[in-house]
């Protein structure tokens, strides 16, 4: 991205942050990157950026629903042993509830990891086709991954991305404690990270096209 484009994208990110993602202009730009447009696409047609941003938002919300449901179910079941378990086991309600919550969190975390394996490729497919339904075309997503880097390769790239993300978060935490300059750097590098991640996933997807 050139300086002018980077500045525009930072402005989009600022607007999206101020509006609490209600005006997802930065996400709309990521949609254009998912389409595979090269070189870096221009930031224009603001109305289309808004619509495309919401397409990605909708897809991610729909992908998150199963994890939310599972978390709620385990949250409810965690307190059933807390209420009735002590009668049979003699354990305290707090111990039973805590164990149930930990188990529920572990299951939810695994579900989220699996969902995001498909969600990342799903939003790239959304960008390629422009159709929300294609983000849930699991057969096509599986075929693309299998023909490209393969599932083992994809999981390896997926883990690598998470490791890079952890390093990035640590950097942000360090910058957060530096007044003004640190905050300014956070404002600049956070959008660049989003673009990097989008390009990263597009390259994986295009390997199987």
UniProtKB/TrEMBL annotation:
Keywords: Membrane, Transmembrane, Transmembrane helix. The chain crosses the membrane at residues 58-84, 96-121, 155-178, 184-202. InterPro entries: DUF4013. Signal peptide: none annotated. Coiled coil: none annotated. This is DUF4013 domain-containing protein. It comes from Methanoplanus limicola DSM 2279.
